[in-house]
């Protein structure tokens, strides 16, 4: 009986690593989003991927989480900066796998912005010479709608907390 349970547990953990990645709160088996409130209007948002998740999808999931935070706070728009996507390659006896972790700094904006174009990436500007000085202004509702369609998610998937 014990051996049967151990085999079953091993199979479940093995399959968890093979499942495609979804937009979800962070868990140790398959990654997901997390955030830290820095101050009243500032957050750090991260999305930890796995080998089954493409780099662009981790960026999209991170941006979607930022938009959801903005919507829950009643912010019609938000600013993102320090967008960073790091891909790690792991070599093993089974081959090479990659996973991408994405992070961004989020500032909630209390005023509406008139986007230069529709969609999530409404406008960008540079405040200095370094790459980290690039900031993006996003319309919260447009961002959620665009990523909902692109990622083929439902409202239940986007707004569930656990």
Overview in brief:
By secondary structure, this protein is of the alpha+beta class. The protein is built from four helices and six strands, in the order αββαββββαα. Helix content is 32%, strand content 35%.
Tags for this model:
162 residues; 4 helices; 32% helix; alpha+beta; six-stranded antiparallel β-sheet
Radius of gyration: 18 Å
Mean pLDDT: 80
Report the β-strand fraction as a percent range: 25-35%
Our count of helices gives 4
Class of secondary structure makeup:
alpha+beta
Uncertain segments: 4-20
Please give the share of residues in helix.
Answer: 25-40%
Overall 3D shape: globular
**Biggest β-sheet strands, sense, barrel:** 6 strands, antiparallel
Fold and architecture overview:
The longest helix has 18 residues, at 55-72. This protein is globular. The protein has a six-stranded antiparallel sheet with strand order 1-2-4-3-6-5. α2 (55-72) packs antiparallel against α3 (140-151). The relative contact order is 0.17. Helices cover 32% and strands 35% of the residues. The protein is of the alpha+beta class and 162 residues long. The model is unreliable at 4-20 (pLDDT under 50).
Topology record:
Elements (H helix, E strand, L loop, with lengths): L1 H17 L13 E8 L2 E7 L6 H18 L4 E16 L2 E15 L13 E4 L7 E6 H12 L3 H5 L3
Antiparallel strand pairs: 1-2, 2-4, 3-4, 3-6, 5-6
